[in-house]
Amino acid sequence: MAENYSVTSAGVNPAEDRAHRMRMYFIAMSLRVVCVLSLIWVRGWWVLLAAAGAVILPWFAVLVGNAVAHGGERAPEAPEPQAITAPEPAAGEERAPSAADALIVVDVDPERRRGAAPGSPAEPGGDVAEGRA
């Protein structure tokens, strides 16, 4: 059987999520109204059950109404940043260091940039980032 793959890690449609939460809130509050009205005609220990429903259901309705679905999707796997380097010299051939020997980082994760040490090439103030070798 073939696996299904998600194109994006987008969550649940916001309109559908909101409609579902509104339905759940409406159902819980309708049950609360039934509990409050049943306090008029029920007797015995049933009064405690109806009173508990009238007190607990609003709290439950608010929790359900505010619970936004995130979809449970996992984030896509990002590849490692690519580095472009100069080609290796042929056997027996020496070459002088030049600007082509500098490491050029094509893509850097924002967390890695923020965590870089001061003056390192990944930081905007570093030598390589400003174009100096």
Automatic annotation (TrEMBL):
Residues 116-126 have a biased composition (Low complexity). Keywords: Membrane, Transmembrane, Transmembrane helix. Pfam families: DUF3099. The chain crosses the membrane at residues 24-42, 48-69. Residues 72-95, 110-133 are annotated as: Disordered. This is DUF3099 domain-containing protein. It comes from Leucobacter allii.
